[in-house]
Amino acid sequence: MQQRNRKVRLVLLAILGANWVVAAAKLAFGLISQSAAVTADGLHSFIDGGSNVLGLVAMGVASRPADEDHPYGHGKFEALASLGIGAMIGIGMLELGRMALDSLLHDKHPQVTATMAGVMAATLVVNLAVTRVERYYGRKYKSSLLLADASHTMSDVYVTLSVLVSLLLVWLGYPRADGVIALCVMVFVAWVAYGIVRHSVGILSDTARLDPVEVARRTLEVTSVRSCHDVRSRGMEESVYVDLKIEVDPQLSTAQAHEVADEVERRLQEAYPQVVDVVVHVEPARGTPANV
């Protein structure tokens, strides 16, 4: 786990550098050209950089080993950071909505130049590369934080696309297109934020990670297990905790019952590599065998 968290932090550092280079380019050119849309897109990119900083701080806490106060480790701090990223996307969505309404109500639009379009196209390519790299490592390391941040960066890609399309339409003589397209992108950004928040809340609220029926079925494959019930699981994708109750022959000795519990734990960890801990409660069998 320590090695995995270190690698996630290295990815975040690299992405942070790329995001702030993009943001600086957009802001500088937006201010020089007095383009509100490009400047606002630069601010949105700085939110991407802020989310990376938040992620680095969270990973520093999440990588700490379990202690007396946190016997299950500090992994949920990563989910808290993902929740913060969702909130940042929401802030960007509100800014995008304000820009769109300002454009529609006051007929404000940027003065389009070829240099402006070229800068925006270049930052778009960088953001696409960042998103692809971050998503790849997010899946490789099963990091909800990297995956959430990749979605955040993807929202910046769509914001930049909307600016490029609106610049084209403004150049063609449709100044209000800037506001209309921005409103459409705002809907997409809202959907991204909702998905990230829902995923993070699922982790923080201990949503079940494994199918209890399937876990019970695998447990019943162990010799001497007569029934399995009260299966529960929680945690993050890469670190799942399971506890369950099994019934065994009441004639078994304590040592034999313990061996059965050890076998159940071994079987489940073989079947589910993401399981880091299994707590097996052993009870004497009563009545008709059943599984739940």
UniProtKB/TrEMBL annotation:
<feature type="transmembrane region" description="Helical">
    <location>
        <begin position="43"/>
        <end position="63"/>
    </location>
</feature>
<dbReference type="InterPro" id="IPR050291">
    <property type="entry name" value="CDF_Transporter"/>
</dbReference>
<dbReference type="InterPro" id="IPR027470">
    <property type="entry name" value="Cation_efflux_CTD"/>
</dbReference>
<keyword id="KW-0472">Membrane</keyword>
<dbReference type="InterPro" id="IPR027469">
    <property type="entry name" value="Cation_efflux_TMD_sf"/>
</dbReference>
<dbReference type="Pfam" id="PF01545">
    <property type="entry name" value="Cation_efflux"/>
</dbReference>
<keyword id="KW-1133">Transmembrane helix</keyword>
<dbReference type="InterPro" id="IPR036837">
    <property type="entry name" value="Cation_efflux_CTD_sf"/>
</dbReference>
<feature type="transmembrane region" description="Helical">
    <location>
        <begin position="154"/>
        <end position="174"/>
    </location>
</feature>
<dbReference type="InterPro" id="IPR002524">
    <property type="entry name" value="Cation_efflux"/>
</dbReference>
<comment type="similarity">
    <text>Belongs to the cation diffusion facilitator (CDF) transporter (TC 2.A.4) family.</text>
</comment>
<feature type="transmembrane region" description="Helical">
    <location>
        <begin position="180"/>
        <end position="197"/>
    </location>
</feature>
<feature type="transmembrane region" description="Helical">
    <location>
        <begin position="114"/>
        <end position="133"/>
    </location>
</feature>
<feature type="domain" description="Cation efflux protein transmembrane">
    <location>
        <begin position="12"/>
        <end position="204"/>
    </location>
</feature>
<feature type="transmembrane region" description="Helical">
    <location>
        <begin position="75"/>
        <end position="94"/>
    </location>
</feature>
<dbReference type="InterPro" id="IPR058533">
    <property type="entry name" value="Cation_efflux_TM"/>
</dbReference>
<feature type="domain" description="Cation efflux protein cytoplasmic">
    <location>
        <begin position="214"/>
        <end position="284"/>
    </location>
</feature>
<dbReference type="Pfam" id="PF16916">
    <property type="entry name" value="ZT_dimer"/>
</dbReference>
<protein>
    <submittedName>
        <fullName>Cation transporter</fullName>
    </submittedName>
</protein>
<keyword id="KW-0812">Transmembrane</keyword>
<keyword id="KW-0813">Transport</keyword>
